[in-house]
Design goal:
The protein is mainly β and about 300 residues long. It contains 1 helix and 12 strands; from the N terminus they run αββββββββββββ. It has a single domain, classed as Porin (Beta Barrel), CATH 2.40.160. About 10% of the residues lie in helices and about 60% in strands. An 8-stranded antiparallel barrel has the order 1-4-5-6-7-9-10-12. The longest helix is centred in the first third of the chain and has 28 residues. It starts with a helix and ends in a 21-residue tail after the last strand.
């Protein structure tokens, strides 16, 4: 009898322990998730263009092209007949410029730029035929001078997307070119009618203001979220440039030389500083402490 009572007490104890273990297991399964620390803040260097203002600066080297020139004579009756200009050569230019711009959105932006171009050497030759008024029959004129320009453009660009911090773009611009020729000289040789021989003239410096236009393509690279480096190509049409009147060796006539249709193929390296706020977003918030269920 005593054995049966002992077995009943032992069975009740084992059942009680099982119920406590089961309740503890359920409570463990419903424990709240741990509170995670905030994610680290990492600044993104590669950013697409955003609306906002920017400053830019550029340097470039331009291969100039011009194969047309003319010579205006005063009085006109002294103009030699059969003049043929050839071998026009316009050396390379080095340019530096600054500008300010505004990005409308991630793909469209505009800026205004001003640049100075210098270092271009001009040389060309004329063949001419007889003219009784001048007392010569045939000859050559050799011209040389220096060409410089101040160019102001309003430009528009379309950015074509960003991959690996690189943003290709295309663009165009219109504006004004203020072209100048300095240090221009003319050395002529005529034969065989007197006076014949060699004559020369120095030309005063002269300027010409022209419509200018440009086409551009290139790629920019995000150095930081606000600084972009820019490498591009630009075709630039500068119009014409002309001298002042000549100061001849033996008196009248006088001349004005004009170099026409000046074009340049430029390789440009620049930078843009963007004022748009591109600070990193705030760290994520995990809300209040989790609710703990009580049993």
């Amino acid at each position: 009898m005593r054995s049966s009572k002992t077995l009943a007490i032992a069975g009740a104890a084992i059942a009680g322990l099982a119920m406590v273990s089961a309740k503890s297991a359920v409570a463990g399964d419903l424990a709240p998730p741990p509170i995670l620390p905030p994610a680290p803040v990492v600044e993104t260097l590669c950013c697409t263009n955003e609306a906002g203002w920017y400053l830019r600066g550029d340097i470039s080297v331009g291969a100039n092209v011009s194969d047309k020139h003319s010579l205006r004579t005063t009085p006109a009756s002294a103009t030699a007949s059969g003049v043929v200009g050839y071998n026009d050569d316009l050396g390379a230019s080095v340019a530096g410029g600054v500008g300010v711009g505004y990005a409308v959105n991630s793909w469209l932006r505009f800026d205004g730029t001003v640049e100075y171009r210098g270092g271009s050497k001009l040389s060309s030759v004329d063949y001419y035929g007889p003219n009784a008024a001048n007392g010569f029959t045939t000859g050559k004129d050799f011209y040389s001078g220096n060409v410089s320009s101040v160019v102001g453009l309003v430009n528009g660009y379309v950015d074509l997307g960003t991959w690996y911090c690189l943003t290709p773009y295309i663009g165009g611009g219109v504006g004004v070119a203020y072209n100048r020729i300095d240090g221009f000289t003319d050395i002529g040789y005529s034969v065989p009618v007197p006076p014949g021989g060699t004559a020369g003239a120095y030309y005063k410096g002269g300027t010409s203001t022209n419509f200018a236009w440009a086409l551009m393509a290139g790629v920019s690279y995000d150095v930081t979220s606000n600084l972009k480096l820019d490498l591009g190509y630009r075709y630039l049409n500068l119009g014409k440039a002309q001298t002042g009147s000549s100061v001849p060796q033996f008196g009248p006539p006088t001349y004005v030389y004009t170099q026409k249709d000046i074009q340049s193929h430029d390789v440009r390296l620049g930078m843009r500083w963007i004022f748009a706020d591109k600070s990193a977003p705030p760290p994520p918030s995990y809300g209040s402490a989790p609710i703990v269920r009580k049993y």
